[in-house]
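[retry 2/3] Calcium release activated channel regulator 2A: previous attempt timed out, resubmitting with same input.
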Amino acid sequence: MATPDERVVSRPQGHGGELKGSGTCLSLLDHPEQKETQELAPGQLAMLRKAQEFFQTCDTEGKGFIARRDMQRLHKELPLSLEELEDVFDALDADGNGFLTPEEFTTGFSHFFFSQNNPSQEEAGEQVARLQEEKVYQSRGNADPRDIDQDEEGQFQMLMDKLGAQNVLEDEGDVKQLWLQLKKDEPHLLSNFEDFLTRIVSQLQEAHKEKNELECALKKKIAAYDEEIQHLYEEMEQQIKSEREQFLLKDTERFQARSQELEKKLFAKEQELERLNQKQKRLEGQCTALHNDKHETKAENTKLKLTNQELAQELERTARELQDAQQQLEILQQEACKLQQEKEMEVYRVTESLQREKSGLLKQLDFLRERNKHLRDERDISFQKEKAAKANTVAPKVNWKQRSGSVIGKYVDGREILRSQSEEEEDVFGLQRRKSSLSLSGYSLTEEESGTGETAAGGPTRRALRRIISIEEDPLPQLLGGGSEQPLSKCPEEEEDSEQAEEGQIQQATPLELTPTTPRGQPVGKEALYKEESSPSTPDRLFKIVFVGNSAVGKTSFLRRFCEERFSPGMAATVGIDYHVKTVNVDDSQVALQLWDTAGQERYRCITQQFFRKVDGVIIMYDLTVKQSFLSVRQWLSSVEEAVGDHVPILLLGNKLDNEKEREVPRGLGEQLAKENNLIFYECSAYSGHNTKESLLHLARFLKEHEDTLRKDTIQVGRPAKKKSCCSG
Ligand SMILES: Nc1nc2c(ncn2[C@@H]2O[C@H](COP(=O)(O)OP(=O)(O)OP(=O)(O)O)[C@@H](O)[C@H]2O)c(=O)[nH]1
Ligand SMILES: [Ca+2]
Ligand SMILES: [Mg+2]
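[retry 2/3] Calcium release activated channel regulator 2A: success.
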């Protein structure tokens, strides 16, 4: 920082040469020793020193000038009041600019010093001057050149003093020479020259004064400027200081806030650390626990592994055993299957031979009838001969002739007669039941004599109805057993009555062929004439099917249609039971159907029930023109179920579809019933043959497939197969 001291001090130095008085003072201050020897007295020198010391005392800051303020500071050191000090300052400040330069100070100080301390010196000066003036005027009158020179010198000095030119003129020598020359040469011009000098000096003095004034103004201005700068500097200093303080304050505050924040953070971190420590401890505890657990688990694991190995070995052993057992089972199943098939075939063969036997017997029967007729004719002839000879009563003979007439009774409607004869028949059946045998009627041989159908002919017709062929319940094994037994019971009249049976029933019987095909002369149903006999291929399997339904719904008619493809109106009611065998082709395999035709009449129900044994399928028939027959279907269903359970497929048939105008059972009812009980359903007509084959083929296919799946299941899994549901047709 540049202080204004140097400038202020140096400036007066630059003007040192111009102000003679002050310049002297200054140079005195600078080189006091030099001046001391040249001009100044020792008293003056001491005074200057004092002044210099005093100046320095006042100018404590070393500015190079003294301000009013500096002076006032002396108040404490000097025995002077503030006003007195002010007066001193005003007195010293010659130019009144408010500053005391060293020159001003020294000049003022010396003046003050001399006037105050040595007042006699001034008077002495004045005296010296007066003496000098006298000396000059005195010297003018003297002619002595040395005196004259001295006089002139004195005069010139006096002039100079008078003019005050010492301070103005730098070199007086020229002026002095010129003045001396004039005085010598042109004394009259001397006064003019003096005037001229006076004017010049005064002008110079004026110029000098002006210059001084200008200098003073300049100095004042500089001082003001300096002061202002000083002021500004101080202000600036102040401002910087305050700014610095503020900054420091702010900084401190910020620092404090930051440190507080950091402390908080530190605290939080410490807490967190503590938490983490605790957590770590906890985890360590858990770790140890887990470690222990792990050991335990390991031990357990090993144990389990061992157990597992043991179990695996056991499993393997069991699997091997199971496999063996399965293989054995398979072998057994195959054997069983083979046996079953053999058995079936045997059954079929037996059935077939039975049929052949039946047809042979029928032929025998026909032959016998023929013989009987022949004999009767012979007898009639002999009777007529006797009659002609004796000519006795006629009437009783006619009656007998009518009952046992040789005319073959035509089938009218034996049902009516049958019903009226129930009592007698029951007697017969009762007897048979006692013999633990059941009746098996090939067909009812209920011929009436001369085909009148009159019930009036009670006695003889009743007898005719007794022609019931009876066989064991399960006739097949018995037949296999040989012909020693005689299971068929015959009424004594049967032979006679059977002669009348012909036409309607035995259309196919070729009468004259006596072919004793069977070892036993067992009479069987006349309808047992089957085309299957001629069937070239042997069937693969055989199914037993039982045919049930109310009386007169058309079971027998249906079977006739199916087996013989013909319809015989006015069929007699079935008595006991009958059966047919028919081989059908189902999906390239021959299936033999053993069809058992039961009697629908109430009294034969208990017989029918026993034929359900080992049945493969059941056909329930109703007459769609008789509502009651449909209502009875439920009873038939329950009796079937009672006998064989619900695993046997059932075909429901609504017969007499040809008689649409008398229909009493809508198709929907039949369908619904079938759906409810899971039955195969068809509406058919034995008369037209509609749906007869289709329905039975459906059943046959179902039975076959059912058996196939059963076989497969038995072989593959060895588990019982589920019953396959039948769908209605
Ligand atoms: N219109 C018509 N009549 C038939 C049909 N089927 C049978 N009939 C007649 O119905 C009557 C009874 O027939 P059967 O075959 O004897 O009846 P069934 O069911 O065997 O009777 P039972 O042996 O007593 O159980 C006979 O007069 C048949 O002609 C048919 O499809 N249409
Ligand atoms: Ca001043
Ligand atoms: Mg019948």
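[retry 2/3] Calcium release activated channel regulator 2A: The pocket of calcium ion (ligand 2) is lined by residues 93-95, 97, 99-101, 104 (CB under 6 Å).
[retry 2/3] clearing retry counter.
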